Amino acid sequence: MTKLAQWLWGLALLGSTWAALTTGALGLELPLSCREVLWSLPAYLLVSAGCYALGTVGYRVATFHDCEDAARELRSQIQEARADLARRGMRF
Fold first, then answer.
1. Do 26 and 20 contact (CB within 8 A), yes or no?
2. What are 28-40's pLDDT values in tens digits?
3. Which of 30, 42, 50, 52 could be bridged to 34 by S-S, CB 3.0 to 4.6 A?
4. How far apart are CA 17 and CA 41, in angstroms?
5. What angle do the packed helices 32-62 and 3-23 form, to 10 degrees?
6. What sections of the protein cross the membrane (predicted)?
């Protein structure tokens, strides 16, 4: 199962549970305080997911590793390509 499918299943499960609780389809009589919190729960979850995503991106950017070996290899390949093109008559 792909990660997208897992997220969609989780959202479908949470969404259907939320809809059933807010519409009273389960026959549960929730206290008023619980129903007030329940209505704003999707907004809280959306803001929490956004904060988590922002924090994850910030952490990944802060701990990004440079690939010095790959950079050296790329520079040498560029120099080889320039030398080859120079032999064929191209000027830079």
1. yes
2. 888 888 888 999 9
3. 30
4. 12
5. 160
6. 43-62
